[in-house]
Amino acid sequence: MEEVFELIKKEEERQARTLMLIPSENYTYSEVRSALGSFLVHKYAEGYPGKRYYQGNEFADQVETLAVEEAKKLFGVPFANVQPYSGSPANAAVYFALLNPGDGIMGLELSSGGHLTHGHPKITFSGKYFESIRYGLDPEKEKYFDFEKIRELALKEKPKIIVVGTTAFPRTLNWEKFAQIADEVGAYLMADISHIAGLVVGGVHPSPAPYAHIITSTTHKTLRGPRGAIILVTDKGLKKDKDLGEKINKAVFPGLQGGPHLHSIAGIAIALKKAGSNSFRDYARQVVKNAAVLAEELKSLDFDLVTGGTDNHLMVLDLRNIGIDGKKAAVLLEESGIILNANTIPNDPNPPFRPSGIRLGTPAVTVRGMKEEEMKEIAGLINLVLKGKKNVLKEVETLCERFPIPE
Ligand code: DSN
């Protein structure tokens, strides 16, 4: 037992003395960590508030209702399910609710910054049991998508659902354009806002709520909550199918999952409540400002950025001009306490385990209170490491000491 606690302590120390630049990671709140370690972890609660298969759920019902109501209020939607264990099961539940095996899922290809659960072919459930229809990025087009080409593909392939969601796309998504295409072909439009949910509620990325039928999101990225996910149905979604919420509830339980993780749901309620505050809006704004400065500074140091920059919390560096692959770069940076991940670039000539790029972002360093000046410092440190000039472990530790992880 002690061994485990020692490892947890070491992980805490590792996080304290390194820069968390993986854009999908973040620090949650101490209140969320308390909820995760609470007595709720002991309880089974299959079903939904007021309709459980086990007794003793008086308080479980209230916790889940709080989370549902916070989610509806925060995103301005009439329906929320807060039970998905994480993002992948949330997306799976939507497909199981709406599609039959073999129906088409149209999503952004992985190498352009999509996600495995958006219909990636052959190796994922979403591409094996459903028809995989892929669209890509087009750096030549304004807004980086060729909407005419995407429309033609949708008209030809007739997907049942069009998924718009990204894990490595640094620009603002044009929900309206995707909605026009989905509406024209009669498809559901699902917005997976896992990466940008905190930016959406913080007012620095447009909300998909007026355009999509369904929204899914993890809760542990820019939202700063515990690991978990939510599925939302919009007014537009209920207009298309008044039973959409009911179908999604049934697909989550009993379709896909067993007992909900009530401790996570309590943490989700806390994080959503905090995400509605003015200080969270300030945080979201600073995340975007920090990313913009980091991107500009890296560009001035001759790094190539996919799409030439960023509008959101992340950026992808194409390292081909530096003569180092993404995996090697990520490992080198880790030796200097700078933690990020290797990432494919659009039309990557390299294989996924040794891709041509790295992905980095500012949600976690912004929680530590770092601002524009520190972003310039971080860009300089990355430059020194990747140009083979210096290991900057000492400098990174000093920077981290100046900005402790808040309680
Ligand atoms: N693993 C997440 C990310 O890093 O973006 C996506 O699921």
Could you please describe the fold and organization of this structure?
It is built from 16 helices and 15 strands. It is of the alpha/beta class. The chain has a 7-stranded mixed beta sheet, with helices on both faces. Strands 11-12-15-14 form a 4-stranded antiparallel beta sheet. Strand 11 (304-305) and strand 12 form a beta hairpin. The mean pLDDT is 97. The protein binds D-serine. The site of D-serine has 4 residues, from loops. Residues 24, 87, 115, 167 line the site of D-serine.
Could you give a short description of this structure?
This protein has 407 residues and is an alpha/beta fold. It contains 16 helices and 15 strands. The chain folds into 2 domains: 30-275, 3-Layer(aba) Sandwich (Aspartate Aminotransferase, domain 2), CATH 3.40.640; 278-402, Aspartate Aminotransferase, domain 1 (Alpha-Beta Complex), CATH 3.90.1150.
Features:
single chain; 407 residues; alpha/beta; Aspartate Aminotransferase, domain 2; Aspartate Aminotransferase, domain 1; 2 domains; 7-stranded mixed beta sheet; 4-stranded antiparallel beta sheet; 16 helices; 14% strand; globular; binds D-serine
What order do the helices and strands come in, and which of them pair?
Elements: H1 2-17, E1 19-20, H2 30-36, E2 47-48, E3 51-52, H3 58-75, E4 79-81, H4 87-98, E5 104-108, H5 125-128, E6 131-135, H6 147-157, E7 161-165, H7 175-185, E8 188-192, H8 197-201, E9 214-218, E10 229-233, H9 235-240, H10 244-256, H11 262-275, H12 278-300, E11 304-305, E12 314-318, H13 326-335, E13 338-339, E14 341-343, E15 357-361, H14 363-367, H15 372-386, H16 393-402
Parallel strand pairs: 1-13, 5-6, 5-7, 7-8, 8-9
Antiparallel strand pairs: 2-3, 4-10, 9-10, 11-12, 12-15, 14-15
Bound molecules: D-serine.
